[in-house]
Design goal:
This protein has 287 residues and is of the alpha/beta class. Helix content is 37%, strand content 26%. It has 2 domains: 4-45 and 159-286, Rossmann fold, CATH 3.40.50; 49-156, Calcium-transporting ATPase, cytoplasmic domain N (3-Layer(aba) Sandwich). It has 12 helices and 13 strands. The strands form 2 sheets. The chain has a 7-stranded mixed beta sheet, with helices on both faces. The longest helix is centred in the C-terminal third of the chain and has 16 residues, at 271-286. The structure holds adenosine-5'-diphosphate (ADP) and magnesium ion (MG). Residues 38-40, 72, 75, 77, 79-80, 104-107, 118-120, 139, 141, 182-184, 206, 233-234 line the site of adenosine-5'-diphosphate. It comes from Ligilactobacillus ubinensis.
Length: 287
């Protein structure tokens, strides 16, 4: 938890639903030149829904969905929640064990005498499984049981309504480079990036996001600052690496609140140019 004293004297921002852990971060915001955004839950809604189920030969949609739901039942990831929600059966009838969250990849659980694995293409590569080529521009959750490929679920997410406007406002406030990072596939990352007119790096693990932020920090001139904005889920290391780590809509995620320098109650991206403006106004008045 955060000592309340941290917020003393930062009244304007706290009234706007912004918790700033020290005035040095407000000052840093007045010098922000690069903003790096996480995709899922930050620029996109992070509210996924299953739009298509593609079973492998000799398997059915019901099998794909059942195995996926069993594996995802304890995961907090928005992809997991959408899969479990799509499953209409009674998940408690099935005995599973040993559930594991593979950060940036997916999940695994033991069911009967084999392991169910559900996740992205990177996870399949680790399992040495090559899925059939599916030309679907959606986030894919692949399902493997033991060593057998069972099928895939296509999962759709959409942009938040104010993402584009927030990026425009940030550039009007002097931010010269804005980049989106994602663990999602290149095809989905590029599609969202094109809609927003932003650059993107896709198929990144959490530690790759840290490396990207380090590289971008190296290109800053002295005194210039880089901010990272994420929803907190799996983003703790990269929140810590940025000059200014901003967690959005993060009430409820303790790890993110601890790792972030600034916590926005709102999950609307326009809160970011808003807090930059507050920082600039504060600077005029106080410093
Ligand atoms: P993002 O960078 O999009 O916020 P995360 O780091 O949370 O993504 O996850 C990266 C990728 O890992 C996701 O796009 C997804 O493909 C995969 N993934 C993570 N957790 C799960 C899960 N529980 N079920 C299926 N896939 C997952
Ligand atoms: Mg994320």
């Amino acid at each position: 938890s955060i000592p309340l004293g941290f917020f003393g004297g930062i009244g304007a921002s706290s009234r706007a639903g912004v918790l700033v852990k020290g005035s040095n971060y407000l000052e840093a915001l007045t010098k922000v030149k690069k903003i790096v955004y996480d995709k899922t839950g930050t620029l996109t809604q992070g509210k996924f829904s299953v739009t298509q189920i593609v079973p492998a030969h000799n398997h059915t949609e019901d099998e794909v969905l059942l195995l996926a739901a069993l594996a995802e039942q304890t995961s907090p990831h928005p992809i997991a929640r959408s899969i479990v929600q799509h499953f209409s059966g009674d998940i408690k009838e099935y005995q599973v064990d040993n559930d594991k969250e593979l950060v940036g990849l997916g999940v695994q659980v033991d069911y009967k005498d084999k392991t169910i694995s559900v996740g992205n293409i990177k996870l399949l590569t680790e399992l040495k499984i090559v899925p059939p080529k599916l030309d679907i521009a959606a986030t894919m959750a692949y399902v493997v049981y033991g060593n057998e490929y069972i099928g895939a679920l296509a999962i759709a997410d959409t942009l938040k309504p104010d993402s584009k406007e927030a990026l425009l406002q940030a550039s009007e406030l002097g931010v010269t480079e804005q980049v989106m990072l994602t663990g999602d596939s290149a095809i989905v990352g590029q599609q969202i990036a094109d809609e927003l007119g932003i650059t993107v790096k896709s198929e990144l693990l959490p530690q790759d996001k840290v490396t990207e932020v380090e590289k971008l920090k190296d290109t800053l001139a002295p005194g210039e600052k880089l901010a990272f904005v994420g929803d907190g889920l799996n983003d703790t290391p990269v929140l810590a690496q940025a000059d200014i780590g901003i967690a959005m809509g993060a009430l409820g995620s303790d790890a993110a609140i601890e790792a972030a320098d600034i916590v926005l109650m709102s999950d609307e991206p326009s809160a970011i140019p808003h807090v930059i403006k507050i920082a600039m106004r504060t600077k005029k008045i106080v410093w």
